[in-house]
Amino acid sequence: MMKSQFKDKFLWGGAVAANQLEGAWLEDGKGPNVSDVVVGIHKDGRYPALKWNATTNKWEISLDKNKVYLTHDGIDFYHRYKEDLGYMAEMGFNAFRTSISWSRIFPTGLEDIPNEAGLKFYDDLFDEMIRLGMEPVITLSHYETPLQLLIETGGWTDKGTIERWMKYVNVVFNRYKTKVKYWMTFNEINNIYRMPFAAGGILDINPIDKNEPVANLSQKSINQAIHYIFIANALTVKLCREINPDAKIGCMLSFSSCATYPNTTNPIDVMGTLQYRHQNLFFSDVMSNGEYPGYMLRQWRENDSMPEMVQEELDIIKAYTVDHIALSYYRSAVYSADASMTHDTGGAAGVKNPYLKSSPLPWAWPIDPVGLRYVLNELTDRYHKPLFIVENGIGLDEVQGPDMIDDQDRIQYIQDHLVQVNEAIADGCDVIGYLYWGPIDVVSAGTGEMRKRYGFVYVDRFNDGMGTLERRTKKSFEYYKNIIKSNGEHLFKSQ
Question: Are 71 and 24 in contact (CB under 8 A)?
Fold first, then answer.
């Protein structure tokens, strides 16, 4: 019988993002960010809450009165974080991942002086985590680029954003240097090609089509933004090490698409799968190895989309690579040269895999625990760095009744995936932690709704914005608590 391979100081916990649970979207000096103006981040690539002002020749916020922007109130974590962290402590978390909302610190991203009220909120939040025995694991940018920064400059398509970003990270690194040991730079930045506005923090400030804030940006412009983000990532690593040499800083990437399998043994499918996977591995190749891989340089040359870059910038990227790789993993995909690949925040979807079961409707994502082991081994073989699983979970359509929610599908999902993490550790993968997404119900990033619930803790809020916000535990709460308490041994109790 397999035994737990999780080391004594393994980081057990959960993960959320500021824009999906804090609420208080304009409170205490906070400015709007990119997630505040979308109902569903990934919906058709359109962002109807922005409209073009022909007088000022700029985009402006235009909220649709017929839609509910659930992120504006989230689950009111901003005012209820002590209650919510109490649930996490009861489960035994020794780590909790969230993000700092950039626009709480610099409301427009253009100020010289940070917003003290925003800084104090995160001081209090991190102090409470530490008091409860949890390491704060903090993402610096999780789909939260200040909106005014994009409107005025285009965001990361403008090289000046590097300086604005470094001003922000310098403030938070110095402010929280005694409180935060684990940092991540840009959440799932490898989603920039399919979610350029939210994931990439970029906006077309000279649009041809005034109804499309992002869609007409050239491939070269997006690649230029990526290059600037790589420079910012390296400079952030450098600054973090200078301010707190004991801290650890990593990249954070979506690696569901790394588990993409060829549909057949036809070499066209096999090579196509490799090239498709390159689109995601490219980002970790640069952030972990410090060099642009040949396959991407070739693609840029042949597409005439090579960004401008100088040797000094390449030297910076080479000199300051990340300490560890943080990753999200939800599902695998199957590639066929004869079928198109679609995407959402969970990863890619291609041809249906007949060997896998799916999560319940309406989302029906394929469930592939072995794919997580595959990804962990792939990343270990490729980079030889510690790995940090900071998102893995299942969204279910649940309504709280008079009895506790019996979320057996979630319990099974967690057990199956953690058994494979255990196998990967036995394989030699240096996995430092597992942070389940998301331990309390939050607003979905992919659909902008409350209906898709991931939590161990139910929150009484609905897609129409109604609800009491009451918190109640589900059956999975006790299951995950027992896994943590036993440091993984509970996974094998019935085996």
Answer: no
End-to-end Cα distance, the chain: 7
User: Which of these is catalytic: 188, 313, 398, 423?
Assistant: 188
How buried is 246 (Cβ within 10 angstroms: 0-12 exposed, 13-18 middle, 19+ buried)?
A: exposed
User: Are the C-beta atoms of residues 198 and 34 closer than 8 Å to each other?
Assistant: yes
22, 128, 144, 391: which one is catalytic?
A: 391
| Separation CA 445–CA 34 (nearest Å) | 12
Can you say whether residue 254 is alpha, beta or left, with left for phi > 0 and alpha for psi between -120 and 50 degrees? Answer: beta
Amino acid letter at 141? S
Distance of CA 361 to the CA centre of its chain: 23
Told to judge if 128 belongs to the known catalytic residues of this protein, a careful annotator would answer no
Q: Which amino acid is at 10?
A: F
pLDDT tens for 228-278 read: 999 999 999 999 999 999 999 999 999 999 999 999 999 999 999 999 999
Residue 450 contacts by C-beta under 8 Å, 6 or more apart in sequence? 70, 441, 443, 444, 459, 461, 462, 463, 467
The answer to whether the beta carbons of residues 23 and 399 sit under 8 Å apart is no
How many C-beta atoms lie closer than 10 Å to residue 124's C-beta?
Answer: 12
Phi/psi of residue 32, each to 5°? -65, 145
CA dist., res. 197 & res. 42, Å (int): 10
Q: pLDDT digits over 115-141, tens only?
A: 999 999 999 999 999 999 999 999 999
Residue of 140, 251, 109 whose CA lies nearest to 188: 251
What domains appear along the chain, each with residue ranges and CATH number? 11-492 (3.20.20.80)
In whole angstroms, give the CA distance from residue 121 to residue 162. Answer: 25
391 is known as an active-site residue: yes
Closest-CA residue to 35 (of 199, 194, 186, 190): 199
**Residue 335 burial class via C-beta count within 10 angstroms: exposed 0-12, middle 13-18, buried 19 and up:** buried
